[in-house]
Amino acid sequence: MTSPLTFAVLGPVRAWRGGSEIDLGTRQQRLILALLLARAGGAVSVAEFVDLLWESDPPPSAVNVVHRHVGVLRRRFEPGLPTREQGSVLVRDGAQYRLRLDGRSLDLLRFRHLAALAQSGSGEQAVELYRQALALWRDRCAAGLHTDGRSHPDFVAVDGERYAAVRAAADAALRAGCVHVVLPALRQAAAAEPLDEALQARLLLALAADGRRAEALAAFADIEHRLADELGIVPGPELRAARDSLLGHEAPTSAAERPAQLPGDHPYFTGRRDVLAAVEQLLAGEQRPTALVVDGMPGVGKTTFAVHLSHRLADRYPDGQLHADLRGFDATGAAMTPSEALRGFLWSLGVAPSAIPAELHAQAGLYRSILAERRMLILLDNCRDGDQIRHLLPGTGASLVIATSRRRITGVAGAHALHLNLLTDAEARELLTRRLGDVVAADPAAVGEIIVRCGRLPLALALVATRSVGRPGLSLPEVAGELAGADGRLAGFGDAYADLEAIFSWSYQALSPGAARLFRLLPLHPGADWSLDAAAALGGLTPRAARGLLAELGAQLLVQPGDGRWRMHDLLRAYAAELGEEHDGAAERDAAVERMYDFYELSAYAAHLLVLPQVPLPEPEPSVVAGRSFTDRDEAMAWFAAEQRVLTGIVARAGRRGRPGTAWRIALAMQNFFQDTAQFKQWAAVAGIGLAAVGDDLVARALLHRSLAGACYFLGDLDGGLSHLDRARKIFERLGLRTEQGHVENNIAEIRLEQGRYDEAIEHAGAAQTLFRAEGNERGATTALLAIARAQSWMGRHEPALGMFTQAQRQFEALGDLHGVGTTQAWLAHTYSMIDDLPHAMAGWRQAIGTFRGAGAAHHTAEVLVAVGDFHSGHGEPVRARQAWREALAELDGTDSPIARQIRDRLISR
């Protein structure tokens, strides 16, 4: 008895005889079969085949070639069929051909049957039928056979049936309250047709119904940008209505999305009653401002006032507070960009990094959409100008921004300016009284002299009060006398600061020699704040010694906000810089900068080893200072996040200081941090700066091209990625570095996998295998085998793929590479899930979890558990899904990594 034939066209064209897949031959033969399958038993003329294969330029032998291809296909379907026999499967009907099919032999016919049943049904039963129908789709109709972005009208028509079924399934699921059943299929269809407004509208509604409103708003911002960018239009009524329904739906703000980021209120805040009263009047009026922008001269107390005001108003904004120091007047010139601030705010609001749009306008649109339904307080410190804060304003809604700036900011819609003058004499006396107590009233003349010397500037008064408290035997007349005899220098800030420099000098002269030296060196640090370890490196000190000196400075001249880092007021930084230029020689200052660069280079290398240990980087040169050490991956990632601006600044400057190695090594060390936090544009920018710094170092140049290829890959610029890889490959070939060539071939295979060009992926991964084996690099060869197995899996060749995954797992086990073992086990599980072999899939995932746990790789363990939870969620098992996600979160032990935030989002929204 002949085994039955089955065919698939809802994705790559495939055919089986019984359980064995049939080799369908050349691309032209597969195209012929694809059109026959798309007709689902209907006839196709020879002329149509000729147009399909050659379009407008067929060869003279075109008709004969078609007949030969048909003959080859017949004999593949019916082995042993005589040459001139037509058989019983692919038959000729005059000048036409057709396939004899029944409802069970073709996935397209099964899809149509299930969709028809679903359409005539209702409720959850109909939704389940739609799910079964859509599960038959693996890709576009006849995927992999299209050329130049064009597709045959029959294939397009079949794709249209899919999208119509997805829309109908979404509608049915929304009515039945079970959108999670069809959400995976809806996501895939929406990704395939990003400009289909009807699909995108249903995706927004489904995401919102599934508790993913932040993701829905991000999706709207993305489609809005695509429509404007690619078609030059705005969203239509259906898509706008879906967006409006999101904003009109009231839902409680989750704890994970209710940030509380205000710095602590100043315990000795005093005065400013007139400005506080003006704020109350403004907020009580009918035309409430969107933003209050506090301006005034440096040192006048803008930040202290804004923080105090924020705490006074916080109870009126129950959905939380956001805070960012925009560093608009930072001495390093590294002001925070609006995009950087928005990315931080969106993370804090529960938006996963992967869901944050890349473009500024889309980030701002998502931010405003989220705030439109909330009452939040946003504190923006040190704004440079209106352009820096314009995108950070909430637009409509009940939220409020409180911002500070040295300049009067005008031209920003909804913003109201609040100007801070110097303290009045009474306010200055009140400030000193609150800090020093009754002694102020006992000697009013001395207090008056101190106030005059301090110019009624809050910063100066606070410094004097702090030092006076630290010297209990010093009387107020003595304080006034010392101030009168002090000297300093702040000429760059104008005549208004002539007395302030005397205050600074008075505090500086009280420092121990070691603290004074560190004070003078700190302005050489390129960041707005710094860690204990960085200060130690800058001063050439042990961490213990640096801690003591920072504590001494912190009593008068530094601020420690509470996050373990230190910062200095801009006026004090300018004063310290002038002192350093006067008292410290160029050699000592240069040595301090060199030590600091060494510290960051060594620390970045150490952090990279934990973030992605299997990717080797050239080791930095030995140094007189030690780099930071890290206990685990999460700590390394947190360090990269805290030092990101410092590291990128060093990359930009190191080349100009004659340290190109520092520039490109740090750029390479940061690439996986950028990847894991979805900062792909920043990755490309930093790697580009590193590449410009490498000079004649060919190995470094090739490594940077490989890094840039990775950034291009994640930015969707696959052609750009291939271009960088081609340059890297040529350099490695010229240098005879076959191992590095192998890595490049593997990278090309990854891009070909992404493009769906699986045969080419296999070709490049095979070339990588050859190169690695020639070098005896078994780990690299096994990684290439893993890429080949993935290509086979995506092509539907599950049996050979499973065999390759098993082989790769054994080889990784022999190498003792637990990361490779766990990754392979996870892919085995994924492949089993694709063929609905659920016992083996679950067993594979359990093995991967056990392997990663044994390796102490909590991050990767969590990723597998998330995949298990997502699988259960997609199969309508919410209890098991939540159990897996909770287990994943427990693996991360309370960290706030991107994957932890994604898991919390799942647990909160479902």
UniProtKB/TrEMBL annotation:
<dbReference type="InterPro" id="IPR027417">
    <property type="entry name" value="P-loop_NTPase"/>
</dbReference>
<keyword id="KW-0238">DNA-binding</keyword>
<dbReference type="InterPro" id="IPR001867">
    <property type="entry name" value="OmpR/PhoB-type_DNA-bd"/>
</dbReference>
<keyword id="KW-0804">Transcription</keyword>
<dbReference type="GO" id="GO:0003677">
    <property type="term" value="F:DNA binding"/>
</dbReference>
<dbReference type="InterPro" id="IPR005158">
    <property type="entry name" value="BTAD"/>
</dbReference>
<dbReference type="Pfam" id="PF13424">
    <property type="entry name" value="TPR_12"/>
</dbReference>
<dbReference type="Pfam" id="PF03704">
    <property type="entry name" value="BTAD"/>
</dbReference>
<dbReference type="InterPro" id="IPR011990">
    <property type="entry name" value="TPR-like_helical_dom_sf"/>
</dbReference>
<feature type="DNA-binding region" description="OmpR/PhoB-type">
    <location>
        <begin position="1"/>
        <end position="101"/>
    </location>
</feature>
<dbReference type="GO" id="GO:0043531">
    <property type="term" value="F:ADP binding"/>
</dbReference>
<feature type="domain" description="OmpR/PhoB-type">
    <location>
        <begin position="1"/>
        <end position="101"/>
    </location>
</feature>
<dbReference type="InterPro" id="IPR036388">
    <property type="entry name" value="WH-like_DNA-bd_sf"/>
</dbReference>
<dbReference type="InterPro" id="IPR051677">
    <property type="entry name" value="AfsR-DnrI-RedD_regulator"/>
</dbReference>
<keyword id="KW-0805">Transcription regulation</keyword>
<dbReference type="InterPro" id="IPR016032">
    <property type="entry name" value="Sig_transdc_resp-reg_C-effctor"/>
</dbReference>
<comment type="similarity">
    <text>Belongs to the AfsR/DnrI/RedD regulatory family.</text>
</comment>
<dbReference type="InterPro" id="IPR019734">
    <property type="entry name" value="TPR_rpt"/>
</dbReference>
<dbReference type="GO" id="GO:0000160">
    <property type="term" value="P:phosphorelay signal transduction system"/>
</dbReference>
<dbReference type="GO" id="GO:0006355">
    <property type="term" value="P:regulation of DNA-templated transcription"/>
</dbReference>
<protein>
    <submittedName>
        <fullName>SARP family transcriptional regulator</fullName>
    </submittedName>
</protein>
